[in-house]
Amino acid sequence: MLAKVFFNRFTAPLIERISFRWSSAWRDALASAIAAALAWILAKHFLGHVHPVFAAISAVVCLAPGLPSHGKQAVGLMVGVATGIIIGEAALWLPDAYPLLRIGFASFSAIAIAALYGLGPVVAIQAGVSAILMLAVGPENAGVVRMLDVVMGAGVGLMFSQILLTPNPIGIIDNSAKDLLEKLAKGFGKSLKALEENNSKDAQNAVLIFSRAHDSLITLENGISSARNTARWTLRGRFVSREVKDIASRYERHAVRLYASALLFSEAFADALRKEQGPPPASLYERLANVACGCAAIASDGEKPMLIPVSDNQLADAVSAPWQICLQHLATVESALVTFGFTTQSDKPAPTRPV
Question: Is the pTM of this model over 0.90?
Fold first, then answer.
């Protein structure tokens, strides 16, 4: 029993997070490996470099997983390297009797100047690294040769990120929202089961499911940010930038509201069921079934069922204040779902409670 509780509370969420991170990273990891090999081959063939290490490294830096914008990373990489090479060349004019002074001056100047561009951390990092390499291995290896390698690697990275493997920004938002909506559907399904069996333990488990959905809400917010960057910094994204703006605004306005109202409902529902605050409202079963079905339908992008409209009569059928609070939070959930494209029609047959 304890092992099952430990697995449900700690191990299962950890496995879920690792699985999500793997699904988000493996494509970029594969693209980085292929781009690195291609950059090496091109630099060796067209530039005549025997060991074009910097070309392969630059491709990896541009396409590594977790970057908000691969295109912006590639531009920043080239600007940073160019800045570092120029500062490193200038530092060579300092007396070589004080090597630490030259390295300190070159790295500080390169990083400080690169930071003024406001193009992201990669610019300052590459500027400082390039300046130090200029002094450590000499301009013949870290100057023009390295710059050409970097341009080749960044060019391959841009080709992959802008043309070959550009993600669909709308798909990024949809996939992020899917995980949140699936967890909400699971939570409402567990609440429905608790209502059918009058089981307060299942109701409390539903609260835990809704609580864990907070991670999915954060993922959705990150997905929206990533989609906006993709729409801004990629060719494919430019074509759907207006649609991305509309979808992102809609989810930003209503996803938090949907999650918060679902969590508040689950807590009020579990409290009312545990304390046996009279019989549940007559409309609760039908409305819970519709909400659970609605969240699942949005997640699967399938047929969108109608939601039972909210009315004063439905709120009035609660026999006690705790059940009224449940229905009020459920009404907020229904309202949030309507904003995602659902409609409400009183003439649609509602699911009937099994006898």
Answer: no
- What's the sign of the alpha-carbon dihedral 177, 182, 187, 189? positive
pLDDT along the chain (355 residues), means of 10: 60 77 84 94 91 92 85 91 92 83 92 92 93 85 85 91 80 85 92 88 90 88 84 78 86 87 92 80 85 85 53 55 84 82 42 36
Q: Where are the domains of the chain?
A: 22-164, 169-338
Cα–Cα distance between 68 and 117 in angstroms, integer?
18
Tokens representing residue 346 in the block: 């009183």
Q: Is the Cα torsion angle 42, 47, 51, 54 positive or negative in sign?
A: negative
